[in-house]
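Record pair follows.
FIRST:
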Amino acid sequence: ARRLVRRAALGAEDPRLAGVEGLASRITPNDRHYTVDESLLKPYVDLRDWRLEIAGNVARPFALTYDELLDLESVEQPHTLQCISNEVGGPLIGTAVWTGVMVRGLLERAGLKPGSFEVVFRSVDGYSDSVALAKAMDPGTLVAYLMNGNSLPRDHGYPARVLVPEIYGMKNVKWLRKIGRAHV
């Protein structure tokens, strides 16, 4: 990250848990982190053409190239993703250290207009989902571009995805191309 302003705080591991059989590591390696997708084919994103648009019910819509996204102040944080259909103890869960830009800052830069209640996230493959405006403005809601210190793997939404705290994985849109506020 070019302008990292906050590092992830993981804290010390509990030594009583060392060597406990079947206990997963605190951070899931990228190649072992679960993925579930709506489409059969994962999109290929060409960075020469990709832009992240911030639009909708805002005063100053704008778009960022990948390079411009990397130039913004970023934060690093641990975040657990879980599939809504994961059973207790199931494999559809993983925790990574993600790096990205706070959605709050992007929406503030665009100039929030009154009269909105949710933020819509749209993928390059046509998938979209939304969260309440208050959730989008949470400091933990990110446009992430690094996963465990590496560029997002294609399976996890390269070049950018949304991470929303305390919400199931399907709401964390991958292959992000647009953030827009929905009208009331």
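SECOND:
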Amino acid sequence: MTGHDVQRLRVVFRIGHSVQYISHLDLVRAWERALRRAKVGLAYSEGFNPRPKLVFAAALPVGFTASAELVDILLEQPMDLVRFAAAVKAQLPAGLELVSVTEVSTALPSLPSRVIAAEYRVAVETDESPARVQALLDQLLASDTLPRVRHRPEGAKVYDLRPLVHRLWLIGLQEERMAIGMVLQANAQGTGRPDEVMAALDMAEKVRAIERVGLLFATS
């Protein structure tokens, strides 16, 4: 943080279905536009192309919705939290919803450096009984390894999915669909993807929606 960062606001927000297919870059731009239109006194980076200082906890994969995303917004001019929330809510596009805003110390570590895992809710449409789905979850959790192939522009990479799966459980019926909860690792050592977990369960084609419901942070 520089001396120009006099206030750090931590915003919790939702990403709805109408914007679930935009890229992370487009999400950042949407927030920048909304903050400028709200006439928020943003702090900017230095250099040839100054950018507003927005720090998102973790990029959301395209196609997912989210109910508790986090972004830290650095301000050069302090602003009352109630006035900030009202001004920004009025400018956010449909599909983005500000849930809450709190002030945190500018000396705290950055959000991305503290993320260790993410929790997801996966809605599935299946004829399988809850008991059968629970058996599949138990079988995956009992596995020592789960070799998977992740395809990237630079080529295919074989990795072990199993250590990235921290928790896995059956939530039950939700709006006539079964839901599966999972907590997956999300840090520099490796990031688990819920769609990869569903593929490992041989249920990829049964997925109807994936929502990231929260991020977990290191406590020390």
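COMMENT: The mean pLDDT is 93.
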